[in-house]
Amino acid sequence: MQTIQQTPDLSAYLAASEVVDHEHPAVRELAAELASTAEDSYDYARAAFEYVRDAIPHSQDADDPRVTWRASDVIRLRTGICYAKAHALAALLRAEDIPTAFCYQRLDDDRGGFVVHGLVAVRFNGAWHRQDPRGNKPGVDARFSLTRERLAFPVDASRGERDYPELHAEPHPAVLAALRGARDRAGLWRTLPAEL
Question: Among the CATH numbers 3.40.50.11440, 3.30.70.20, 3.30.420.40, 3.10.620.30, which is that of 4-191?
Answer without folding.
Answer: 3.10.620.30
